[in-house]
Amino acid sequence: MKTPIDVISQALLFKGLPENQLKDIQKIAVKTHIGKGEPLFLDGDDCSGFYLIISGMIKIFKLSADGKEQILHFFGPGEPIGEVPVFSGQPFPANAQAMVKSNLIFFPRQAFVHLISGNPSLSLNMLAILSLRLHEFTVQIESLSLKEVPARLAAYLIYLANEQGKENSVELTISKGQLASLLGTIPETLSRIFSKMTEQGFIKVHGRTIQLIHPIGLKELSGDE
Description:
Jelly Rolls; 11 strands
């Protein structure tokens, strides 16, 4: 398992920082862990700091008034969680729950803001992370509001292929029920779309392994340039 300093030095948030600054960051870092299914924080909780994932997977989601879950994102090793409220001073805007047993690093808000105030390089890295998150959620909102479910699924499969560095197949790291929530649909509809895309020759499904038979066709179906 990677040590906290390994995760800190390799994370995009701290990438390129000199060793002395990495050591300063490590001094305020608090290693913690959370069991499968346990909440990391709840929507509306006061933000006392943010987290960096060492291992595991964290689900970010919102709940409607009637208890319906809308998954916003899944984050894995090397990714920060809850960094936006650190600067806004607002409560956490969503729920975070461990999908599996997860090890994390916690950075207290006041100590981290103090470090940033005297570290332009860290400030720029943080700005890059916040800009990336804004872009991700803009794309997600556009997809959910403007695209039909088949286009959303095609776009997600292309995204997975890029993320996993594969051309002809991807591995689903979440259940199909969770994928349905992420894409803003229901499991039954998602299953029908998987079947239809298989019949059309776009994909072949083997459990959680999805073969991308016709990547160009998927790209066209996704509607992305």
